[in-house]
Structure formats: structure tokens, C-alpha cells
Amino acid sequence: MLIFCFGRCLGSIQYLKSKFGKNYLLQIKVKGVEQGDLVNTQILKMFPQAARQERISTLLAYKIPMENALPLSKAFSMLEKAKQLFNLEEYSFSLNTLEQVFLELCIEQERDYFDLAPNTTFDWKKLQEGDP
């Protein structure tokens, strides 16, 4: 099985997982939205190289590079302590799935295809007196 994007072969499943699947995915479900910032601070203390991928209501998702991760036993021990301390609903700590690798590739390809560079320039226009 191969994966194609924009008519180009990106590689076999094994190749893509070995090249792009070098991260753990940490998903945390908090009980209240107000806990998000506190939990985020704690996660960055535990995993300094973590990059928050999403924050949707009460769900936080982080990408953690394997080379910077703690041994799994220590990571789970610290996550369990955080679960008790912050009264978290649940958490999941896993390897990137093929689906996540595929989605990241598609987003990257789409960004390249559409050349989506952030536009930080603004056109300022002075409002005339009497304009609504």
C-alpha cells in the first residue's frame, strides 16, 4: 500500500511511519475548561519539548518527540499523579497512528500547495467623521 498526495507517491506505510511517526500523542480530557491553563503548565513541566496540537473545549492534545520523552513507566507515573492532582477525566498516551501521520502529511502538503504564509500586514484606513 502506498500513499499518494497531489499525484505524488509519498511512500509506503512503513516508510511514512518510520519517517513521520516519531512522536507520542498525549490527549487529556479535563473536567472544566478553566483547568486548561493549569494542566498545560504542568504538562510543559513534565515534557518540556511538548507541543500543544489542539485545545478544543475540554480536550488538550500534545505532540511529544520520542527522543525527549521520559521512560514510559515514569511518564505514566507522572500522568497518574497529574490525573489525581487536577482531577482529570482521562488521558491517553500513545504512539502516532498512521491516520495522524496521514493527516499531518495532508496538512503539510496543503500548506505547500496553497503557499499559505501568514500575512502580518494590515491596511489601516482612517475613518472619516460621520462614517458609520
From TrEMBL:
Return the GO cellular component terms, semicolon-separated.
membrane
Q: What is this protein called?
A: ABCA1-4-like C-terminal R2 regulatory domain-containing protein
| Superkingdom of the source species | Eukaryota
The signal peptide annotation in the UniProt record is none
**Every ABCA1-4-like C-terminal R2 regulatory domain range:** 21-94
Could you tell me one molecular function GO term of this UniProt entry?
Answer: ABC-type transporter activity
- Matches recorded under InterPro entries: ABCA, R2_ABCA1-4-like
What the entry lists under Pfam families is as follows: R1_ABCA1 (PF23321)
